[in-house]
Design goal:
This protein is of the alpha+beta class. It is built from 27 helices and 8 strands. InterPro entries: C2_dom, C2_domain_sf, Munc13_1, UNC-13_domain.
Length: about 900
């Protein structure tokens, strides 16, 4: 705007210094412009170029997402449910025969009817409710249910026993002069007196231990047991385990004394003698008798110097032991009001049955196997009733089911490890027939691992069964990993979370491998996972190849499909890097990205080498276009690998793949040049030489031309031809094509404006302003595109500098465009020059009585209007051009003094 104001100020100053003018005749200078040359149209294939550049935009857009390494988080993920996993009913536990179902039903009824111990707050203590639940899950009629209950009631009651683990004590009283004690425990079962027993309990038939029977465990329940003496401590640790037979669950109680041992008397021998007493009556006095016997057998010193000092006792009714057992600290109690005690004792108690009058027990079915069958039956029915088709079920059993399983596990004397193993075996098998939530399975593995570390031992048969289940689950997981993309797509957040949990489950399996005498895995699980992934990669690749680019088709027909395949490989590797790689590495220490990249890159490289060799002799425009697009993706793959720290694409199978693509690239550049001209021709034909919108000062064809030039520059950047010498030649040719297309566009514009009606009659033609703006926009766009064709790295010249042929071409183009802009400006201002001369002539003819300001007012008004119009119509870079033309025309409004 300041430039245009300078024009107005100059005219005003010249008028003010000339008080009068003489009439003179001036000849308007003029310049004749040659008609633009028609471009040769026989050099390219007819077409409007729209489709070609639309496809080119798609190629560029494809490359936008391939700049550098992909983010480690995929921004666009679907929260929809994960794809359903395959299930196979044959992989579950075998179906039970009707006779076995009946036996299992009887076992469950027996468990409920002869339950013992205290029920927890989260358990069902209603016998009728538990029996009704069993009738429902086993699908029996009321009559059948009633008959079954009667049969079980007539069976012999089980033999009960109390498992006692004396773990430790703390904060005991110090009885010795050194400030410590030498504590030991003496414990046994105190039966109730005959009067307190219920008549029913005396008449009940019971199994009794046969003397001398082989049990392989602790002494029979008719014993008083003694722990080892722990010397000089107030916090003894024993961790000793005992088993006591229970005569009457409702009245018997566990009694435990802790004493300080002060002499060398054999308390164990004293206990053995007292254990020879037949019967349990008067057991209470035997605890005192043991101490007396120990004193009587002492040999060193006075009796008062060799007494076992009392440190505390416990009395725990058997009926108060929880069904699931108890593991806690008990506060020690005094023997009488005169006793002084302190401290606590840590006990683990569990009430079990040692003999059961059920068909399963009589047929030699262990409690382990019975519990497995019962758990499997209840889990399957509970899942079916809750969410039969859901993969989010976490094994939440109903309260009656959990209560019955707790009762049966306790009565069957199953350890926490055995229960954890059974839950895993049943649930993992059930998962393969009806999908469960992997977080539930992971929790089972973690629970089993925790108990395994505490007591890593199982009977051989049970360990073999566990090994089989772990092996079956790992094989199932490997099958899923083979189809990783199908069952755990990277764009589905739910599926990715399931994959993470599955990998954690497989990771837990490896922790058990060193613990087995019989290894559940034939080889390292990591090796199996890598093999499964490789096999899955090949199957996925072959599936796309056979679908999109079958080998039996001719090369030209296979080419588009191979482009699709290469794009699919790149996208897959992006997902692998951004989603799968971190999961596999952090959980299993498996480098899934390197494994997958190496395999897929080699496969697609082999296919590309073979196809280029086949297509080279029959190169056509269509083939060149397809090969060019294929090469762009292959080059993207190489750059992807190079962008990872520590990786070098020279070791890839794709190294040197650019060489056979060079003829196709050269031919495609020719197609690009021709299509660019046709695209510009079509854009100018459709152009109305009006601004695109209120905020723009150029027309639609200039926008199209600028976009085409920008796309050419972006394409060159993406091509990034690796051979420097070849890249220099390609860049020079492409730069010449850019210059040719740009000049072709300006010639089309000049022809277009010459045919516009009324353009010559206006003082300031809007169409000419638009054309001038178009030329300026294209000049800048072409300059930017040519700068992008600088020396590539490694070429024979400084990096970032245009080669000499291209530099000459660029300078010539800029000169041509500047001349074109000057020509358009001359056309634009020619009528203004004539109008200004007329106003000056009117000023020279005005009387001297008229003031200068009044005389020049019409001229100033004209200048205000036209200069404002120019300011509104021209872009900033063009505002100085009218002044340049005025200076060239030497418009003088004051040729001589009056």
């Amino acid at each position: 705007m300041s430039t245009l104001l300078d024009i107005k100020s100059s005219v005003l100053r010249q008028v003010q210094v000339c008080p009068s003018f003489r009439r003179r005749t001036e000849q308007d200078p003029g310049s004749a412009s040659a008609d633009p040359q028609e471009p040769a149209t026989g050099a390219w294939k007819p077409g409007d170029g729209v489709e070609f550049f639309a496809h080119m935009r798609l190629m560029l857009k494809k490359g936008e997402g391939r700049q550098g390494l992909p983010c480690l988080e995929v921004p666009l993920r679907s929260g929809s449910p994960a794809p359903p996993e395959p299930v196979d009913p044959s992989l579950g536990l075998r179906a039970l025969a009707p006779e076995e179902v009946e036996m299992l039903y009887e076992e469950a009824l027996y468990t409920v009817l002869y339950r013992a111990g205290t029920m927890g707050p989260d358990q069902v203590d209603d016998e009728e409710a538990l029996l009704s639940y069993l009738q429902q899950v086993f699908g029996t009629s009321l009559e059948e249910h009633t008959e079954a209950i009667e049969r079980v009631r007539k069976a012999k009651a089980p033999t009960y026993a109390l498992k006692v683990s004396v773990m430790r004590a703390k904060n005991l009283l110090a009885k010795d002069p050194n400030g410590f004690s030498d504590p030991y425990c003496m414990l046994g079962i105190l039966p109730a007196s005959d009067a307190t027993r219920e008549p029913r309990a005396q008449k009940e038939q019971r199994f009794g231990f046969r003397k001398g029977s082989k049990r392989g465990g602790p002494l029979p329940a008719k014993c008083i047991q003694v722990t080892e003496v722990k010397s000089s401590t107030l916090n003894p640790v024993w961790k000793e385990h005992f088993l006591f037979e229970i005569e009457d669950v409702s009245t018997d109680q566990l009694h435990l004394d802790i004493w300080d041992h002060d002499d060398d008397v054999s308390l164990v021998e004293a206990c053995r003698k007292l254990n020879e007493v037949i019967g349990l009556k008067g057991m209470g006095r035997y605890f005192k008798q043991i101490v007396k016997s120990a004193r009587a057998n002492g040999t060193a010193g006075p009796t008062e110097d060799h007494t076992d000092d009392f440190l505390g006792c416990l009395n725990i009714p058997v009926r108060e032991v929880p069904v699931a057992g108890v593991d806690r600290w008990f506060k020690l109690e005094p023997r009488s009001s005169a006793s002084r005690v302190q401290g606590h004792c840590h006990l683990v108690l569990k009430l079990i049955t040692t003999q059961r009058d059920t068909a399963m027990s009589q047929r030699g079915r262990s409690g382990f196997l019975s519990h497995l069958l019962l758990l499997s039956h209840l889990l399957r029915l509970e899942h079916s009733a809750e969410e039969p088709n859901s993969s989010s079920w976490r094994g939440e059993l109903s309260t009656p089911a959990a209560t019955i399983l707790c009762l049966h596990g306790a009565q069957s004397n199953l350890s926490p490890l055995q229960l954890a193993v059974l839950h895993w075996q049943v649930s993992s098998r059930h998962h393969q027939t009806c999908t469960l939530d992997y977080s539930y399975l992971l929790g089972l593995l973690e629970d089993m691992q925790a108990h395994w570390e505490e007591a890593p031992s199982l009977p051989q048969e049970q360990e073999e069964s566990l090994a089989d289940s772990l092996s079956a689950f790992s094989e199932f997981g490997l099958q899923l990993l083979r189809q990783l993309r199908d069952y755990f797509p990277a764009t589905n957040s739910t599926a990715v979370h399931r994959l993470e949990l599955l990998l954690k489950c497989l990771g837990k399996l490896q922790l058990f491998q060193p613990s087995f005498e019989i290894c559940p895995f034939e080889s390292e699980l990591n090796m199996d996972i890598a093999a499964a992934l490789k096999r899955g990669n090949r199957e996925w690749y072959d599936r796309i190849l056979n679908d999109k680019s079958p080998r039996e088709q001719p090369g030209p027909q296979r080419l588009p499909g191979l482009v699709v395949l290469a794009d699919a490989v790149y996208d897959d590797l992006q997902f692998c890097y951004s989603v799968y790689a971190s999961l596999f590495h952090s959980i299993l220490n498996v480098d899934v990205f390197t494994l997958t990249f190496r395999q897929l890159e080699r496969l697609v490289a082999e296919e590309a080498w073979v196809l280029t060799e086949e297509l080279s002799p029959k190169m056509t425009l269509e083939v060149a276009s397809g090969l060019f697009e294929l090469y762009l993706t292959l080059a993207d793959l190489q750059r992807f690998w190079d962008s990872i720290p520590g990786r070098d694409s020279r070791s890839l199978a794709l190294a040197g793949i650019h060489a056979p693509f060079l003829p196709a690239v050269k031919l495609w550049f020719q197609v690009l040049r021709d299509q660019a001209k046709w695209r510009l021709q079509g854009a100018v034909d459709m152009d109305t030489l009006e601004p695109v919108d209120a905020s723009s000062r150029h027309s639609s064809s200039a926008a199209t031309a600028g976009l085409c030039l920008s796309h050419i520059q972006e394409l060159w950047v993406r091509l990034a031809w690796p051979d420097p010498a070849q890249a220099q030649g390609l860049g020079t040719q492409l730069g010449q094509d850019v210059c040719e297309a740009t000049l072709f566009y300006t010639e089309l514009l000049r022809k277009k404006v010459d045919t516009q009606p009324g353009a010559a009659g206006e003082a300031v033609s809007e169409a000419l302003c638009v054309v001038l703006n178009n030329v300026e926009l294209v000049r800048k766009a072409a300059g930017q595109a040519l700068k992008g064709l600088a020396w590539p790295e490694g070429a024979t010249g400084p990096e970032g500098v245009l080669p000499r042929p291209l530099l000459s071409c660029t300078q010539a183009l800029d000169d041509d465009l500047q001349r074109e802009a000057h020509t358009v400006t001359a056309h634009l201002t020619s009528k203004m020059v004539g109008d200004i001369r007329k106003y000056v002539q009117h000023i020279s003819l005005s009387p001297d009585s008229i003031q200068n300001d009044e005389a020049v007012a019409p001229l100033m008004k004209y200048l205000d209007e036209k200069l404002a119009l120019l300011n509104a119509s021209l872009v900033k870079g063009n505002l100085s051009r009218p002044w340049s033309v005025f200076s060239t025309q030497r418009v003088r409004v004051c040729p001589w003094r009056a």
